[in-house]
Design brief:
The complex is a heterotrimer, with one copy of chain A and two copies of chain B. By secondary structure, chain A is mainly alpha-helical. Chain A has three domains: about 55 residues, Ypt/Rab-GAP domain of gyp1p, domain 1 (Arc Repressor Mutant, subunit A), CATH 1.10.10; about 100 residues, Orthogonal Bundle (Helicase, Ruva Protein, domain 3), CATH 1.10.8.680; about 130 residues, Orthogonal Bundle (Cyclin A, domain 1). In chain A, about 65% of the residues lie in helices and about 0% in strands. Chain A contains 16 helices and no strands. In chain A, helix 13 packs across helix 16. The two termini of chain A are about 15 Å apart. In chain A, about 35% of the residues are buried. Chain B is mostly helical. Chain B has a domain of about 30 residues. In chain B, about 85% of the residues lie in helices and about 0% in strands. The radius of gyration of chain B is 25 Å and the shape is rod-shaped. The relative contact order of chain B is 0.06. Classes of the chains: A mainly alpha, B mainly alpha. Chains A and C meet through helix 5 of A and helix 1 of C.
Chain lengths: ~290, ~60, ~60
């Protein structure tokens, strides 16, 4: 099949005109027909290729354990998930913790707090903490990607939990890692950031703790989250690195406050290209997972 | 194949268990809220009695 | 033997289901109680305002 010249020509053509995903989409469709689904293969696929948008939510749900590997259990488990979601929502309404005018992201936060047994007393709700803000940022981004509120809540909750459980210990090391790769790619920029004192004040929290929620527009963000959900937090370092590299000329001419201000609010036009280059750079330094797909 | 069946059953049970655990937390939260509300109601009705005493002596 | 495993899985799932149903009934009862208590509190605080109005004019 690989020798079929017509097919190769077609792939090359698609590649040129931007339909690079045609072959990938077919191999993903084959993986999704497996019963039970092979989680490892799905992760590898998602590490290597961008997920076609029509399958993204389904693959995320499987990788995050919201849906089990056996497709014939999906209806049963999906029903359990819906009831769990509805019951929690109903209880919060009964307690008047939320009402119809509560912003949905805050609803998701209260639901998550109830499930994690850290819901504050209604009479003395404290101001939001940093962790709450991380959760809310991720919620706001997820809400732009996922239409159905039930799916949205489950994806936020499981993404947030999985990310912190799996990578919580690695997060403090990411700034050092960024510094390391920057010294490889652009030592002059690193020196500039060091000498102005900006390096210590890069927006590490929105970049790493929030996985770029609030920094990148959702269309670019979801391609980064494909990698995070399928098992890599290193990708975050390369997205940060590529942001620095893409704006190095401007950054070289800025002092510390200007750098910080610029990076906290980067232009939203080039982000697709930044993510593409970041993924290439990540594959270059960390290798491409080579399981048979 | 047997492993497969066990595995499927396990994931279904886990999802069912998660729904049950969530419901358990809902119950606990509701109970706490009710408790607080009851003590508030009692305190208020007690305060009201005290407030009203000099103004409205029992008939 | 396979039938055996399936049978066991089914009964475990049923047990989980019935625990959940019991918890659900508890939750519903608590929510109803909460609703009644809230309306009582609101009625009282409304009555208090009315009661107090003629007695305690604003300073």
């Amino acid at each position: 099949m690989a020798d079929d010249p017509q097919r190769n020509f077609r792939s090359a053509y698609y590649e040129k005109v931007g339909f690079r995903g045609v072959e990938e989409k077919k191999s993903l469709e084959i993986l999704l027909k497996d019963n039970p689904l092979d989680i490892e293969k799905l992760s590898t696929f998602s590490q290597r290729f961008p997920l076609p948008s029509m399958y993204r939510i389904h693959v995320w749900k499987v990788l995050l354990g919201i849906l089990p590997p056996h497709s014939d259990s999906h209806a049963l488990v999906g029903g359990y998930r819906r009831e769990q979601y509805e019951n929690i929502l109903e209880a919060l309404e009964a307690m008047r913790f939320i009402n119809s005018s509560t912003p949905t992201t805050e609803v998701y936060l209260r639901m998550f707090q109830l499930e994690s047994q850290v819901l504050p007393r209604r009479s003395e709700i404290p101001p939001m903490e940093e962790e709450d803000e991380d959760f809310l940022s991720i919620s706001r981004a997820m809400e732009e990607i996922i239409v159905d509120p039930m799916d949205c809540y489950w994806l936020i909750k499981c993404f947030y939990n999985q990310f912190n459980t799996k990578f919580g210990d690695s997060l403090p090391h990411l700034p050092k890692s960024l510094e390391h790769y920057l010294s490889q790619e652009e030592p002059r920029l690193l020196n500039h950031l060091k000498s102005t004192g900006a390096l210590a004040q890069l927006p590490y929290d929105p970049w790493f703790n929030r996985c770029f929620a609030g920094t990148l527009p959702e269309s670019s963000l979801q391609r980064v989250w494909d990698k995070v959900i399928s098992g890599s937090c290193k990708i975050l370092v390369f997205v940060g690195l590529e942001i620095l590299l893409s704006y190095k000329i401007s950054l070289m001419g800025m002092n510390r406050p200007e750098v910080v201000k610029f990076l906290c609010n980067i232009p939203q036009e080039n982000t697709d290209a930044i993510v593409t280059k970041a993924i290439d750079l990540w594959h270059k330094y960390c290798g491409t997972p080579m399981h048979s797909v | 194949f047997l492993e497969d069946v066990k595995c499927q059953a396990k994931s279904e049970l886990q999802a069912c268990e998660s729904r049950y655990q969530a419901q358990l937390r809902v119950t606990q939260t509701l109970q706490t809220e009710l408790l607080q509300l009851y003590s508030r109601v009692e305190m208020e009705s007690c305060n009201n009695k005290l407030d009203n005493q000099p103004l409205c002596p029992p008939q």
